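Priority: medium. Attachment 1 of 2:
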């Protein structure tokens, strides 16, 4: 992949991750679920969720108001496959899947904003596989959240 394609790919993946954080932090759980493929796998701790409806339910079933903000860094993107095309004489195909790794920090309080008591709930490594769908949008097809540091007192109620 040439350097310009690599930069554009990284920017596209970064946009999906940023959209996930924005929609989650602002309570748009349908938009969060829309960032995943129909049959996506989300693994967080001992919980495994399969498909958009299960992912959306994960957030909408909460009974208590929760205020969060997510930030991330250290994004690393690598090719997971060689792309769509099979014709060796064709132009290089854009990848159909990539792997992305990043480190996330989640600030959380079980209550409405504004909040005077702020603290880190979780620092975690995210291991993602993103798939370019037929509508040319990148979506998360697999996400594994691996906790590194956690404050159980700030867990969802």
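Attachment 2 of 2:
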């Amino acid at each position: 992949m040439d350097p310009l394609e690599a930069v554009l790919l990284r920017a596209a993946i970064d946009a999906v991750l940023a959209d996930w954080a924005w929609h989650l932090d602002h309570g748009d759980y349908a938009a969060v679920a829309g960032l995943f493929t129909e049959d996506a796998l989300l693994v967080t701790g001992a919980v495994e969720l399969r498909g958009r409806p299960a992912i959306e339910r994960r957030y909408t079933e909460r009974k208590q108001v929760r205020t969060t903000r997510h930030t991330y860094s250290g994004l690393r993107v690598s090719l997971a496959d060689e792309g769509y095309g099979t014709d060796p004489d064709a132009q290089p195909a854009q990848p159909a899947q990539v792997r992305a790794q990043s480190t996330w920090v989640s600030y959380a309080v079980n209550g409405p904003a504004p909040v005077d008591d702020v603290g880190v709930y979780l620092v975690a490594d995210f291991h993602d596989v993103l798939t370019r769908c037929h509508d040319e949008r990148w979506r998360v097809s697999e996400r594994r959240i691996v906790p590194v540091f956690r404050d159980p007192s700030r867990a969802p109620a």
